[in-house]
Amino acid sequence: MAADLDTTLAALADPTRRAVVNLLRARPRRSGELARALSLSRPVMSRHLRVLREAGLVEQEGLASDTRVRMVQLRREPFAALRVWVEDVEAFWSGQLDAFKAHAERRAGRRRR
């Protein structure tokens, strides 16, 4: 799980790849459409899509009507794992902040006496 999370975070560290993910959140798209939307050349888009595909974040499927056309779409699983990790980190920090708040309130209460 940790290696998968590392791969996911490394792939999403690039702003262009995050922009691709944001576009794909709305619907699957052709790689050429993604390239045009982000003002990138097709080879550059291809490299970004390869990183996302190798990280397991996207998949490409051919259309039944035209097998030459490949649609790119997001995969849920890696994002679900990322969400679980973020929620765990958030829970940890919430607990730490609650403990700090209680400690600060105890100390403030002692000073007032």
Element layout with pairings:
Layout: H1 2-12, H2 15-26, E1 29-30, H3 31-37, H4 42-54, E2 58-62, E3 70-74, H5 76-112
Helix pairs in contact: 1-5, 3-4
Detailed description of the structure:
By secondary structure, this protein is mainly alpha-helical. The relative contact order is 0.13. The mean pLDDT is 86. It has a three-stranded antiparallel beta sheet. The longest helix is centred in the last third of the chain and has 37 residues.
The structure class reads: mainly alpha
Task: Write down the overall mean pLDDT.
Answer: 86
Strand arrangement in the largest pleated sheet: 1-3-2
Shape field: elongated
In percent, how much strand structure appears in the residues?
5-15%
The end-to-end span amounts to 51 Å
Strand count = 3
Please bin the fraction of helical residues. over 70%
Summarize the helix and strand pattern as letters: HHEHHEEH
As a whole number of angstroms, the C-alpha radius of gyration is 21 Å
- pLDDT < 50 runs, ≥5 residues: none
Number of helices: 5
Largest sheet: 3 strands, antiparallel
